[in-house]
Amino acid sequence: MRIALFGTGGMASALGGQWTRHDLTVSGRSPAGAAALAAELGAEAADWADAAARADAILLAVPTTALEALLTPLDLAGKILIDCTNTPGATGEPVAARIAEYAPRASVVKAFNLAHVDVWRMTPPLFEGRPLGVPLCGAPDAVAVATELVQDLGCTPLPAGGLERAALLEAAAGLAIGLWFDGLDARSMLMGS
């Protein structure tokens, strides 16, 4: 699969590092940062438009405030956009729904937003001997692509419905992140203590 990593921070590095069997391209606001991450991953660096043109799927790992300006000028027809972003404390329209508006001819899937970046560096992410479950919300074609990428990590894909359900994942992330910042173990609400 041809994957473009949009962003050069922790999520792009962690997930990209698990997907090196694929053809990776890295784009970022800083060409030097994109080149550095590309070298780390054995990938190519390219500008946003070139990376999008080459890609089957694009991981969106940039600040949510940058998404509209980044996506609207690009030709994303037929592309799978994987939204791993979170905006804790945000209200209003979910990020995944806004992405679908910015790129109406692409397919969007919300994925990889519930775990800390360090979890995505684990090979594989196991907890008490069980693989991490990764909820996926989006169009069936986007979920199918994300399913393969979840399995590449050694995780269990959890198809959770259409893109309209992405708001639930974003709200769950906001709740869990808030609990973690307060020093509480958010896992205990699902698995017991």
UniProtKB/TrEMBL annotation:
Keyword Oxidoreductase in annotation: yes
Pyrroline-5-carboxylate reductase catalytic N-terminal domain boundaries: 2-86
Keywords, comma-separated and alphabetical: Oxidoreductase
InterPro entries for this protein: NAD(P)-bd_dom_sf, P5C_Rdtase_cat_N, STEAP_metalloreductase
Pfam families in alphabetical order: F420_oxidored
Protein name: NADPH-dependent F420 reductase
Lineage: Bacteria, Bacillati, Actinomycetota, Actinomycetes, Pseudonocardiales
